[in-house]
Fold this sequence. Notes:
This protein is of the alpha+beta class. The chain has 5 helices and 6 strands.
Amino acid sequence: MICPCKKGETSVVDSRPTEDGTAIRRRRLCTSCGQRFTTFERVQIRELFVVKKNGRKSTFDRDKLSKSIYIALKKRPIDSDTVEKFITKISNSLEEMGQNEISSSAIGTMVMDGLKELDPVAYVRFASVYRNFREEKDFVQFVDKIDVFKKR
């Protein structure tokens, strides 16, 4: 494994399973700059492809999914362990579907459904990008239709 400084190799300082047991967390130390960082090793049963709306296919990227979820949850009171479990749950659900190709809309719907339960503000944030709100009225119509804020 190469360090983010891109100058040296790394050695594993500590290795342990994650809380849910679906990955191995490794603490690494760069032999060049001395920086410590964490990597995760996960099981990949099959290579998944995401079919975009335009028909183009790309390899499923857990990191891309993770980034979009973390952006939606930015400055929200949700701890990182909960977020990681949520991301793992979605990734595992995709694997369990038994398909090699999954539509981007199916993934987006899974994320939205999960965020709706996890955090209503993050749900609306994600939906605004996923549903591509163009004007204020699109946003208002969406919020009027959902019931996550009415429960509170």
